[in-house]
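Incident log, support desk, overnight shift.

02:14 A customer reports that sequence design results differ from what the structure should imply. Their input is reproduced verbatim below. On-call engineer (initials T.W.) acknowledged and began investigating.
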């Protein structure tokens, strides 16, 4: 059966690439959308890498705007037909109906369409730390789900038969029976150098990034804390400046931002830091020979656990700041 990967972030693309290599099948398709920053760049590099038989771009944000303007009647009672109509011009309906679908987010309209029409198999892949947390569904969201006849997200839809993640035993109890191990480390270890170079070419040019082996290096992994409206932009910068003062002394400091962040850390911290390219998933540092760090620090990025060439990993957690912890805990159960 052909495979279709629906990706919204660079990390999704990285997993899709590794999974496709593991499957070793020639008819796989990858779909990227305009939720992805630099989508034109990825469209071209994915085609050039020739890992997927077909690379498709879908302007889902544009389609979402169109759908939101439809009547309430159509959105409730004609939802499936409406989605099929809006996405049909991109030649993906037949693939979504018949192929094995790999989703990374099951809360988007394109994912909803796949769930509605698929007659094959649907697997949900890991989207990071929130895959393992129990979402807090508000009364407003429950009413919306009831009115729009929506199923609970994050792998709980009955049509999602399998959830393939790095740490299956850490999934919430209500969905752990769907779990399957994604052997990211094994796939990465088995890659030949030619394959590593090809994967790297999807995300960066080699000239974009270099590491000095003679210096101790520290990596700060940031998150879209202000973009998620958990804290203000000023508060976010204050927190990361505090972290750099605590952990960065005596190190060459690198910052890897989240793809959804808008903060210009180079303008904030100047020559004190080296900003890594935003468009690559942190996990590909494993493929770069000299990307070794004395220390890596994050508040709550799951990417920290996927890094291999780090001597000391510092996970601060949302409780590092009271305001941040309070706001995030209204969304997910942090005590799980």
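02:41 Re-run completed on a clean worker. Output:
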């Amino acid at each position: 059966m052909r495979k279709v990967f629906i990706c919204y972030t660079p990390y999704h693309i990285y997993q899709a690439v590794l999974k496709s290599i593991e499957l070793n099948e020639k008819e796989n398709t990858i779909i990227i959308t305009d939720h992805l920053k630099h989508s034109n760049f990825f469209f071209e590099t994915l085609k050039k890498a020739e890992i997927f038989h077909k690379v498709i771009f879908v302007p889902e944000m544009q389609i979402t705007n169109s759908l939101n303007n439809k009547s309430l009647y159509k959105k409730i009672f004609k939802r499936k037909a409406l989605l099929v109509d809006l996405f049909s011009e991109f030649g993906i309906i037949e693939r979504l109906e018949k192929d094995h679908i790999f989703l990374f987010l099951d809360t988007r309209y394109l994912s909803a369409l796949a769930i509605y029409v698929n007659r094959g198999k649907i697997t949900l892949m890991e989207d990071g730390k929130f895959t393992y947390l129990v979402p807090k569904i508000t009364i407003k969201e429950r009413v919306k789900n009831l009115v729009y006849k929506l199923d609970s997200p994050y792998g709980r839809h009955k049509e999602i038969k399998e959830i393939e993640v790095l740490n299956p035993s850490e999934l919430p109890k209500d969905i752990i029976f769907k779990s399957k191990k994604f052997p990211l480390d094994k796939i990465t270890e088995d890659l030949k150098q030619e394959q590593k170079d090809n994967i790297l070419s999807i995300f960066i040019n080699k000239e974009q990034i270099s590491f000095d082996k003679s210096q101790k290096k520290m990596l700060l992994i940031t998150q879209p804390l202000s973009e998620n409206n958990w804290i203000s932009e000023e508060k976010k910068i204050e927190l990361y400046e505090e972290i750099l003062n605590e952990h960065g002394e005596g190190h060459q400091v690198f910052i890897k931002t989240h793809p959804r962040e808008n903060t210009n850390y180079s303008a904030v911290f100047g020559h004190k830091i080296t900003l890594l390219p935003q468009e690559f998933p942190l996990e590909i540092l494993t493929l770069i020979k000299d990307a070794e760090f004395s220390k890596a620090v994050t508040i709550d990025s799951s990417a920290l656990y996927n890094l291999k060439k780090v001597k000391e990993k510092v996970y601060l957690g949302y409780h590092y700041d009271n305001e941040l912890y309070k706001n995030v805990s209204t969304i997910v159960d942090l005590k799980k």
